[in-house]
């Protein structure tokens, strides 16, 4: 059995499991979607919750003791810095653009609350509510409802098509046996082969309706298996870069279904590249991530990126609907099937595309269900 290469990766440490002896307020704050930071008189961080770790993509151990200003861009100063020096009782700003030190910009509502004697430069509590996340929650809910409706329609249509196909194939086989001229059997063979192709297509439309078999698995082994399949088919044209976090805990999932889902996504990336190209597979752990109406304390994120031509804007999120594709030889079923498999595991897939390439981010809960 081949081993997964251990590449030198600098990653924020995973947040430790809550200590049963820890104070309950801290555990409660870790369940919030808002980033909560406590700042001392010198505006250094004395506490940050799990959502704060996710916002800044830095562990609590590394954040505590740092000046809050060091987390923000020095090129595009944020209004937060000025507001932290005010002696008002409390302050809230809506739809503020905040540029982080990493260069990432977010739109958020933030509130500043005094904690102690503000006039003596006491401690304060800073709450940041990222608006993109709120919009993403609603989008995830809509996507799940949309997917369920379209999948039911596709399955109903597939059943209606599949039933007469069996009769057509059987009649063609009987006719083939009765024919006494070999040149005529060519026509019946065409009928049979086309029926088989249509039945395969309708089977894909029906999707993975079988029962899932959940087991603990290493996601890196699944992704390595897919990498080998793709490189075997495209040994000279495609380069696959790996950016793995080796500390990701085991995932409880159906291995065969996940292979099918990620294989469909990677194949979509391959088809989006004209000529030679690069695909990057990246794995990370995120904290306090909400999918639909459920907030998960720990999730796995698998980003599959390509440097292809991107997805046309008029397709957008409809790319996950059955029979929607921008490829001349595509069936439009690979991504909907991948979405359904991930949805059955309690996860979701997000799409980010531009003229320089596309990234599909697959989010899967890591807690056992």
Model regions low in confidence, pLDDT < 50 over at least 5 residues: 1-22
Number of separate structural domains: 3
Question: What's the number of extended β-strand segments?
Answer: 12
What's the CATH topology name of the largest domain? Heat Shock Protein 90
Q: What is the terminal-to-terminal distance?
A: 29 Å
Strand content: 25-35%
- Structural class by secondary-structure content: alpha+beta
Shape: elongated
Q: Would you list the SSEs in sequence order as H and E?
A: HEEHHHEEEHHEHEEHEEHEE
Q: Could you give a quick summary of the protein structure above?
A:
The chain is α+β, with helices and mostly antiparallel strands and 369 residues long.
Descriptive notes:
By secondary structure, the chain is of the alpha+beta class. The chain has 3 domains: 24-131, Beta-Lactamase (2-Layer Sandwich), CATH 3.30.450; 135-206; 215-365, Histidine kinase-like ATPase, C-terminal domain (Heat Shock Protein 90). It is built from 9 helices and 12 strands. It has helices at residues 24-29, 50-56, 60-63, 79-83, 131-178, 182-206, 219-233, 255-271, 334-344, and strands at 35-39, 45-48, 91-99, 105-115, 123-130, 215-217, 238-243, 251-253, 277-291, 294-306, 348-354, 357-365. The strands form 3 sheets. The protein has a 5-stranded antiparallel beta sheet. Strands 7-9-10-12-11 form a 5-stranded mixed beta sheet. Helix 5 packs antiparallel against helix 6 (182-206), helix 7 (219-233) crosses helix 8 (255-271) and helix 8 packs antiparallel against helix 9. The chain is elongated. The two termini are 29 Å apart.
């Amino acid at each position: 059995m081949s081993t997964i290469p251990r590449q030198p990766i600098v990653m924020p440490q995973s947040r430790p499991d809550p200590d049963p002896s820890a104070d309950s307020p801290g555990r409660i704050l870790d369940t919030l979607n808002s980033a909560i930071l406590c700042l001392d008189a010198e505006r250094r961080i004395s506490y940050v919750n799990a959502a704060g770790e996710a916002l800044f993509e830095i562990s609590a151990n590394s954040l505590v003791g740092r000046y809050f200003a060091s987390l923000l861009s020095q090129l595009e100063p944020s209004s937060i810095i000025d507001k932290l020096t005010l002696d008002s009782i409390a302050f809230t700003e809506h739809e503020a653009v905040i540029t982080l030190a990493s260069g990432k910009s977010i739109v958020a509502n933030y509130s500043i609350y005094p904690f102690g004697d503000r006039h003596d430069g006491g401690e304060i509590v800073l709450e940041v509510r990222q608006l993109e996340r709120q919009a993403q929650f609603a989008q995830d809910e809509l996507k799940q409802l949309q997917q369920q409706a379209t999948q039911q329609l596709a399955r109903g249509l597939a059943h209606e098509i599949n039933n007469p196909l069996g009769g057509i194939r059987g009649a063609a086989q009987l006719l083939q046996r009765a024919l006494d001229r070999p040149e005529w059997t060519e026509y019946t063979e065409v009928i049979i082969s086309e029926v088989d192709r249509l039945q395969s297509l309708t089977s894909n439309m029906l999707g993975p309706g079988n029962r899932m078999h959940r087991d603990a698995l290493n996601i890196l082994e699944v992704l390595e298996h897919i990498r080998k399949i793709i490189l075997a088919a495209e040994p000279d044209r495609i380069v696959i870069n790996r950016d793995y976090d080796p500390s990701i805990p085991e995932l409880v999932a159906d291995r065969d279904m996940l292979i099918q889902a990620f294989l469909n996504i990677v194949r979509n990336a391959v088809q989006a590249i004209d000529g030679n190209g690069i695909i990057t597979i990246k794995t990370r752990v995120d904290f306090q991530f909400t999918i639909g109406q459920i907030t998960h304390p720990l999730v796995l994120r698998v980003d599959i990126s390509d440097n292809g031509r991107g997805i046309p804007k008029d397709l957008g999120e409809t790319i996950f609907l059955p029979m929607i594709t921008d490829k001349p030889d595509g069936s439009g079923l690979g991504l909907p099937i991948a979405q359904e498999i991930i949805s059955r595991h309690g996860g979701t897939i997000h799409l980010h595309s531009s003229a320089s390439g596309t990234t599909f981010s697959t989010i899967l809960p890591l807690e056992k269900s």
